Amino acid sequence: MNKVCQGLEEAIAGIEDGMAVMIGGFGGSGAPIELIHALVDRYRRTGSPGNLTVINNNAGNGAIGIAAMIDAGMVAKMVCSFPRSSDPRAFTEKYLAGEIGLELVPQGTLAERIRAAGAGIPAFYTPTSYGTLVAEGKPVAEFDGRMYVQERWLKADVALIKAELADRKGNLTYRKAARNFAPLMAMAARITIVQASRIVEPGGIDPEHVVTPGIFVDRLVEVANPKQEEALLREGAK
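Above: the chain's sequence. Below: its structure in token form.
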């Protein structure tokens, strides 16, 4: 099956108001900037999609990527580990104004909740956060003399991720640390949309090098020279 879209607009078609959207990236590393800004551009033209729940490691930086989504008013809630960044203005202003919600999740727990969803595991136990505000209201249990907190899987309607190399069937490789949450998110979302620096024919990737199998990918779009969040911030992009 050829999963390649003709452009960014086609790739993001069908993302609707109220959806939960996972977005890959650890800061700017692996952030699908072009997909994110195609979505922002669509919102500015049409007013949709809004009221989104965004799941990411952080809550954006400057006026780029997720911060641009927040600035535009698209995001109703962030699920993340680090709502503060070097320039957290977009999220901070909305949060202090009561215009955006926050679910704070320890980073390891965030990754495991996403992985659990992809593996079909509805809940698991972790000692992380026991006895803190993060654990309030959650079931707890004792195992071998230690207290653990029950955490639920974390699913999404859509995942937006960035790959280095893809074939037309959706098999993916990543560039070093840009891999981060992407393979887990591809498994945990109902629809996975990928921007790849290069798309090749089937057989063009050594099977031993495939990180995300094509079965977890629904749409592909080639972005030959993707922007890097940190570079855009240094340039003062808005």
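Residues 167 and 204 are 7 Å apart (CA to CA).
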